[in-house]
Specification:
The protein contains ten helices and ten strands. It has about 280 residues and is an alpha/beta fold. The chain starts with a helix and ends with a helix. Bound molecules: zinc ion (ZN).
Length: about 280
């Protein structure tokens, strides 16, 4: 068995080696040496990235965070169906346009333009009503959402199925990551916890949706300087809640706010206030 594995590795390396060599022989029919080929290549200028100070000087985009959409509960993590729709409707009526995390990132890092009134609408913890209620209501008002997935819940009662997750990604919504089992991110400094809570489940989620998963919402919105820096290795951008942004790593500590059972006008006022400070 061991020998067989070894043989497979050798055969695979042979094919890899020949595949790597192919393009250079066809690209280089004249037999020029590699030095000449590389000097004749057009070198694209690297687009300048904003510095941390420049990122922090940019106006924040309001990012809303929903957990449960359910009638008959009263806690800060739940909105009733009517409140959810009223909140989404007021955003549309007030001229807000939804953006996705790619657009927010490109705005922060490369100064790309955003709509005049941008908003990001996000959902944490993979609940099934994000798909059955959230998605259709967003689409009714012309919005796209961002769904941060806790992957231990795949196909469980009250949570989204893997087919529903694939459908979200296929229909233009963004699927982000929210850990395997909601372990606090400050514990990811342990290799095995990192592997189980980030590396393996992120790979699996990418397989399910057929796209890279590049955005992360910290479980409970909690992080610290060390963890925030560590996320550079795994995600393009990460999200906290409405606590203070990390001034050394603002891209890995982008702010969101929970939208609770508030009237539409209270929501708009809270958005303005929350995202005018850091
Ligand atoms: Zn959560």
């Amino acid at each position: 068995m061991f020998k067989l594995k070894y043989l497979i590795v050798i055969i695979a390396s042979f094919f890899l080696f020949s595949a790597c060599n192919k393009p250079s022989s066809s690209d280089n029919p004249e037999g020029n040496d590699s030095t000449q080929t590389s000097t004749s290549e057009v070198v694209e200028p690297e687009i300048k990235k904003n510095s941390t100070v420049e990122i922090l000087a940019k106006k924040q985009v309001p990012v809303l965070c929903y957990h449960r959409i359910e009638n008959g509960r009263s806690d800060e993590y739940t909105v009733s169906l009517a409140t959810f729709e009223a909140q989404i409707k007021v955003l549309a009526d007030s001229g807000y346009m939804s953006i996705n995390p790619d657009e927010y990132y490109d705005y922060l890092v490369y100064n790309k333009e955003l709509p005049e009134k941008p908003v990001m609408i996000s959902f944490d913890d993979s609940r099934v009503e994000h798909f059955t209620i959230g998605k259709p209501i967003l689409e009714k008002y012309g919005f796209k959402g961002v769904f941060f997935i806790m992957t231990i819940t795949y196909n469980k009662k009250n949570y989204m199925s893997t087919e529903q997750l694939a459908e979200l990604a296929k229909t233009g919504h963004t699927v982000g990551f929210h850990s395997w089992d909601h372990t606090r991110a400050i514990r990811y400094n342990n290799d095995s916890i990192l592997r189980v809570n980030v590396i393996e489940p992120k790979n699996k989620l990418e397989e399910i949706i057929g796209k890279p998963v590049e955005y992360f919402a910290y479980p409970y919105g909690l992080t610290n300087a060390e963890t925030t820096a560590q996320m550079n290795d795994h995600f393009k951008m990460s999200f906290i809640l409405s606590t203070k942004q990390d001034t050394i790593n603002p891209i890995q500590s982008v702010r969101r706010m929970i939208a609770p059972e508030w009237s539409p006008q209270s929501l708009i006022r809270a958005m303005e206030k929350t995202f005018s400070r850091r």
